[in-house]
Amino acid sequence: MNLQNLKTAGPRGLWLRTVLVCAMGLPMLIFYAIGTLGPLLIADLGVAPHWLGWLVMSAFGLAALLSLWAGPLVNRLGTRRALALLFWATLAGYGLLVSLPGFAGVLLALAICGVAQALANPVTNLLVSECVEARSKAAVVGLKQSGVQLSALIAGLLLPPLAGSLGWRAALACLLLPTLLLALWGPKVAAGSAAGKTMSLKIPRPNSRLALLLSVQLCVGLVLSSFVTFLGVFAARQGVAVGETGAMVAGFGVMGILARTLLTPLAARMAEESWLLLTLLLLASLALAVTAQATPQAHWPLWFGALGMGLTAVATNAIAMSMLLRDPAFGSPASASGLLSAGFFAGFALGPVLFGTVQQGAAGFASAWLMLIAVLLLGAGLSLMLVRARARALQPVSPTA
User: Fold this and answer.
1) What is the mean pLDDT of residues 218-247?
2) Which residues of 210-238 are buried (b: 16+ CB within 10 A; e: fewer)?
């Protein structure tokens, strides 16, 4: 058995996968908490619903900015120290969230969580690249990306009853102990990883194919963040209780886990994964069109939208990350992952603010849902451009006369 197999076999392999899932899920859990507990936050903080978009922007705006350098930073630190920084930043963010008062305090706490979000994809992708045998890489990427959706499941099932009895801050305080344990022991899975050379502050430029994939993920991030952030508010206007909204977010998480763990290996067996990205984005636009039809008398479109978005749009990020590891033409794993995350998080940061602004117009939620559908169709068009760009790269060069 070679060194790579030793690293991923038995209890060590299980611990590695657990840390990968938690590294992806814990920094993102706060985002799903905002979507699930949105009405409670609005009432407690005394703000208008569209202010939730600024909370999301504080986390993902910083995450998008830091992601530009996250890949080189992870290469410089090595996976062990980068994992430690990720978990300690998450712990600091949650600690501030449960202790600082007012809207400004929540804004600062979420910004600290943005540091961990920026590190999550580069450090976990580098860890997979170093420690997982080639035949298992796609499956492990799908598994670790499903950690994000596991956080949605936890936020949807556990946080509403805890918040109802203890308050939303105390409910989130329950996450402090497991985060502390991961900060202390999680980095040991990367004990053999060495730090790299001196870090350059120069922002790496994406090549044309990575730029297209990055643009697709920007569209996906914009739509997903808007959908999850305002699902609770939209559902409340249709007479849906917080508990049922939590169940919808949990269903979104379950479907996302299934989609990422099943579709990522499937995409790895395809000759061109971009066709799957295109198909999933078209199906996601259908799910949003159905969501918009919800009324106080008919809640099933909300369930259809939550489950449909989990099965479709959510899977695209895991597929994109797997593409980076399988095709070296996109760039080195850590640097390419950082740039891709920058695009994804930029969409996450911008989406809720744009959605909230459009939603305040005369047409309300109807025009906001249409905006998201248009963004998904744009992402589908970019996916088609990526198909053609990769096909051109595979064409043999004609000999000169």
Assistant:
1) 89
2) bbbbbbbbbbbbbbbbbbbbbbbbbbbee
